[in-house]
Amino acid sequence: MTIDVPTSRSHRSLPQLQPISFIGADGQPTGVPTDGLTIPSDRTLLGLYQKMVQVRRFEAQVTHLTRQGRLATYPSAAGQEAIEVGATTALAPGDWLFPTYRDSASLLTRGVPVTEILSAFRGDWHCGFDPNEYHTSPAATPLATQTLHATGYAMAAKLKGEDACTLTFLGDGASSEGDTHEAFNFASVWQTPTVFVLANNQYAISTPLREQSNATMLADRAAGYGMPGIRVDGNDIAAVFAAVTAALERARNGEGPTLIECLTYRMESHTNSDDPTKYRDAEEVEHWKQFDPIDRLEKHLRTARILDDATAADITASAEELATSVRDAMNTDAEVDPSELFAYVYANPRANLATQQEKLEAELATAAQP
Amino acid sequence: MTIDVPTSRSHRSLPQLQPISFIGADGQPTGVPTDGLTIPSDRTLLGLYQKMVQVRRFEAQVTHLTRQGRLATYPSAAGQEAIEVGATTALAPGDWLFPTYRDSASLLTRGVPVTEILSAFRGDWHCGFDPNEYHTSPAATPLATQTLHATGYAMAAKLKGEDACTLTFLGDGASSEGDTHEAFNFASVWQTPTVFVLANNQYAISTPLREQSNATMLADRAAGYGMPGIRVDGNDIAAVFAAVTAALERARNGEGPTLIECLTYRMESHTNSDDPTKYRDAEEVEHWKQFDPIDRLEKHLRTARILDDATAADITASAEELATSVRDAMNTDAEVDPSELFAYVYANPRANLATQQEKLEAELATAAQP
Amino acid sequence: MTVTTATTAEDAPTPVSVTMTKALNQALRDSLSDDENVLVFGEDVGRLGGVFRVTEGLRKEFGPERVWDSPLAESGIVGTAIGMAMAGMRPVVEMQFDAYAYPAFEQIVSHVAKMRNRTKGKVSLPLTIRIPYAGDIGGVEHHSDSSEAYWCSTPGLTVVTPSNPADAYSLLRDSIASEDPVIFMEPKSRYWMKDELSLPVQTAPMDRAQVVRVGSDVTLLAYGPTVRTALAAAEEGAEHGLAIEVIDLRSLSPFDDETVSASVRKTTRAAIIHEAAQFGGYGAEVAARVTEANFTHLSAPILRITGFDVPYPSPKLEEYFLPTAERILDALESWDWEL
Amino acid sequence: MTVTTATTAEDAPTPVSVTMTKALNQALRDSLSDDENVLVFGEDVGRLGGVFRVTEGLRKEFGPERVWDSPLAESGIVGTAIGMAMAGMRPVVEMQFDAYAYPAFEQIVSHVAKMRNRTKGKVSLPLTIRIPYAGDIGGVEHHSDSSEAYWCSTPGLTVVTPSNPADAYSLLRDSIASEDPVIFMEPKSRYWMKDELSLPVQTAPMDRAQVVRVGSDVTLLAYGPTVRTALAAAEEGAEHGLAIEVIDLRSLSPFDDETVSASVRKTTRAAIIHEAAQFGGYGAEVAARVTEANFTHLSAPILRITGFDVPYPSPKLEEYFLPTAERILDALESWDWEL
Ligand SMILES: Cc1ncc(C[n+]2csc(CCOP(=O)(O)OP(=O)(O)O)c2C)c(N)n1
Ligand SMILES: Cc1ncc(C[n+]2csc(CCOP(=O)(O)OP(=O)(O)O)c2C)c(N)n1
Ligand SMILES: [Mg+2]
Ligand SMILES: [Mg+2]
The pTM is what? Predict the structure, then answer.
């Protein structure tokens, strides 16, 4: 006679080893089993392609401006465009996005204006946009903390009977933080409509994945929470988009959260102040170039005759337009108002802040005198 | 062409669904597959039986004294004796144990004197014993924090080339804390000789397991760290002892950590100030009585003719002796010395503490005057 | 000191004896009734009604979609509460004991405190974090911390603490209604304190201190668990001809400079009483700011009568650690009263 | 202000220009060489040498078994360091930025600070937690916190902070050698500050403050990043005939009452300067205790010249937030100098 503990009927299996991928690095179908996912239509892929080209141009431009000193710092997602664009595009407008410092490209995809995206990195103000307008949380810098916000937001939506799902990005490094565990667990216990998109770019600053985790894959974590986990080629936007779309559909149907591990590689340094030669070889970076997310989609679209030279030229032109607008935006220095230091700390006004503000204003007035 | 990410050859599989159990609740062999574990010898089982009887008597006696007000509070492990005794006995003397508030029985098994175990609950001093003497950390109250200490200690042992392993207990509730995740991850990445014994007693105070986790089983977590996980019937000490022994052997061989989930049930209230009728039925408690760890081992040992009435009487007598010594120990009130408030805070003496101590001593001297 | 809401003579409710626990419970019940966005969750706050029974009966009354037991993880509790508040809810979460808020420290300090500021006021977080604090109940280690200094030194947080049932009700309702996130600190040793009271009750505004005993010789500043101690000292002082004024701070952040300065300018002497250790404790801020604002009016330095600079002790040593009425009176004697 | 270890004239090393980063690096190197129990680990401290390059070259020199990159989890880093210290090691861990020590808050406050006390001295935790703190380097949000108040109000912790390369070396070596756990706070904006120096160097004992400029009119108390600011103010003050004494506190906990009181009794006026917000900041403790100990000697209240009571601002607003030499001199003017 053995003990009988009720066994939950939750999701329990380890993801397939081979990352799901529709379009190979050579632009050809990979033939990898797809775990029920279907490749997006060529129309959809063309749209995603266009956005990726824009995003890449954006990243390049901002990185350049940062080197010139127009921005204090900038963490580029160059090389990870398929994740930024693929995951974000799958969202409905009413869904909420919970990005990190690395995800400016997702903000761009979400429609946040350039100056508002770059506010933090230019040093104007922490969050430059109105989260409620774009249904997008301020980009989180304290790692993994946003995974819990995404879970909580989704829980509220669920309780209110609203349709909104949440999607949050996190990195391979952030996956080691306690908050990530707590978010996975809360989301699965509460069956919140949340999608966790783990951009596994092989490094947390200088720390390689093998010193971050001993798991065969990070998506293996999901089973321990009774949550579906899946691993996709994060440089194949068809796979990313399909996986996120399917996860959002499940979420909307009340079937709870999903963990999607997207394998990718950070092509740039961590931020402009990083020196990647200290911890990785030029060959490794070279090696990853062949898996470029844009190249392969371009090959696919050209083979499928969805993309021709004229369209490609239009797309490049519109990306150049964006780059110009970024340059222009960063050329005019934003005015900052020292009084704003005190304006938003509390909803209920405080005497000590008022006094300090007066002092500062008096000081500035004196300094302004001839 | 698909991306090629090196795949770690770490442990990757979900544990068998049926908890490993040698001796069924009826004292008969269960026939459950044992995943390579072997049942301990009857000699060993007799020793374990004796310790469990002692431990149960201890828990009953202390609970009784607590109800009488001799102790401030007491979290009993009644019903969980197989885990306390089975896991602790498997340790070598040089190994280190990292217990929690629930694990007084493991301290007893480790040889810590009764008054030193109960110091904290009687309100004398936080930790009543010398951790270095018993190779046992102070019992941790902040949940899950000790899992990291166990991992760190094991890492130091590994770095020093010492043979010591570490074992830590944690509960189903504690498994939700971020620290648990971090400990599993650090231990597996560093391949430390650590055994995590998760006593899943179905409740965290009032919170039932299904609101704590949506996983099929908590042992499923292990795969996500590339660590072996196993689930055993935590009320079958043969299974617990075998699993911990095997895990310690692997650990000593440099094969890294193991997670062992032990299914069990907390027969008493959380502590004496808890009221379990608010969250669980009497029937549920009744139901679990049939899986009692001591009853079944007694049946087995009697069937195997390892235990006869005379030995059983000896064992009961020695448990009674222990109970008497507990009563005696708790009847004499420990002296406390107010100056000790200041004695151990810092190794380097501090002027502010000296001043405060002087003040307190002056105050006490005045109060003592007729 | 407490005022019931205005009612006509006929339907004025008869005051009954109410514990602080009951008052808090009623405040949660009334907030849950009045605003469907209010949610209550945390460890054991559902079926059990919390380890101190503050949430007793609420799950039954409002259902598990409004009041529920969360998994055991404080960062998770606060972190998800942040998300819920972003979605327009007003979560009220419980940290089971003071030291068990520490796992949530990053979420509280880096997000709860800063969200409104970083979004230029676009996102408020109207959430309430209930923290039972302080000692004097014979708790084992890690169960008697007084963590107010951590929260008070964090810009963006509002920190309040009641010392009696009426304030417990009123301050908790105001905290839940506030657009700013509030750290609501509940003095464990006063949970079972009773007052004659009829609920609902609205006491002073949540950012004001209250003079709870008038005196002309000394001002004692106290909050939460030490208000009773200060009142006892005042009582005893009176027997020796010392007229002690006692102020219950109620709001630790913001600090009510106006009320306190008025009193100190009258008495010219003040002491702050708290359980937490002295070094870097909240009393340091009180002493520093009250001195700065009233330096020329002071006849003596502001004293801090507090716990010692050591970790909170085990139960048998508590009595030596905690500030008592005697210790307060002894300390007052240390002043040079001729000045 | 700095003293090189005694050597004979011949083999006295020639002082060279050393940054604080380099001095810290050398202190780690020398500690690793001298004691095989010293371990260095944390996020990116290995191959990269830390984001501020403080651990540069150490992995190469001592191997990945002494110096290595850990998984990214601060509670994990401190929690495992505790276990290692229990096993007799002397871990030195890095929190990458000040706000990223918060996930480790529970491990630091509930264990690091208390282990020795709870075991009656049987288990010491000789571990050093390095925390780069404060702002003035144009960091984005969460990269410029000054968290010293949290640690200083926690009994059981020792908190030190250097303001110059020589102290950086000496204090770090002393911290690693200490049986008590030390929070070692490194002022980010001073990392690249250079001094002529020959290492090794032993400056004042780690629990002592240092008078770094002598004056008779006012005492400025500063630490870490604000020492330079205070010295600049003193320089400027001298031009206006104000003789300002500057004390570098160095040790925040314990506080060197002796050195500070001696100075304050001489000058009768003091101000404490820090970057952190004022309310509940470390300056409150300084003002409170110095006032209490020297009340009758003071001609004016102790001023706190600090950051405002708001979250640390984004880079473009930093200059308005940070205490400057001008703001210090302005504040001193607010005193009634006739008193
Ligand atoms: C809690 C916390 N600890 C440390 C840091 C400092 N930090 C910023 S980014 C980073 C690496 C993150 O790596 P990963 O999660 O893989 O994301 P990636 O940068 O590769 O996109 C670190 C350590 C932080 N932001 N938050
Ligand atoms: C960090 C932390 N949070 C909350 C608590 C309060 N607490 C003490 S025991 C307990 C339940 C623990 O449940 P579990 O881990 O299953 O262990 P069990 O008591 O069942 O043995 C809680 C919530 C604590 N001690 N530490
Ligand atoms: Mg990464
Ligand atoms: Mg349990």
Answer: 0.98
